[in-house]
Design a protein that fits this description.
Blueprint lengths: L4 H19 L13 E5 L5 E7 L3 E6 L1 H19 L1 H17 L7
Antiparallel strand pairs: 1-2, 2-3
């Protein structure tokens, strides 16, 4: 298995279901990893990725669409770690700070 967050996330969900099965004395299932693709942020405004699925096959995305997909996945991660309220608050504060933060770093 590749050492990526996608694997860890799928394993965590699998473990949750397996613990419930174990506690109710049902037989355990084996883990099957499904590669859903990858996204890489290259800068604040650029990203590239490959999305995999049964319906679409493999689809390569880049630019604005890939960056939006990356930001959405990052939001989902923050939401799972910090909770929905904090993730939404952080997203709103980040958006507000973008308007007042200087575009050029002076140090």
């Amino acid at each position: 298995l590749p050492p990526r967050a996608q694997v860890a996330s799928q394993q965590a969900e699998f473990l949750e279901h397996q613990l419930a099965r174990h506690l109710s004395d049902r037989t355990l299932e084996s883990f099957n990893y499904v590669d859903r693709g990858s996204l890489v942020a290259l800068s604040r405004s650029a990203a590239v990725g490959a999305i995999m699925g049964k319906a679409l096959g493999t689809m390569t995305i880049e630019g604005w669409l890939a960056r939006r997909a990356y930001r959405y996945l990052h939001f989902l991660h923050e939401q799972s770690v910090q909770g929905r309220g904090r993730a939404v608050l952080r997203m709103m504060l980040e958006s507000a700070m973008k308007r007042v933060r200087p575009q050029l770093k002076l140090h």
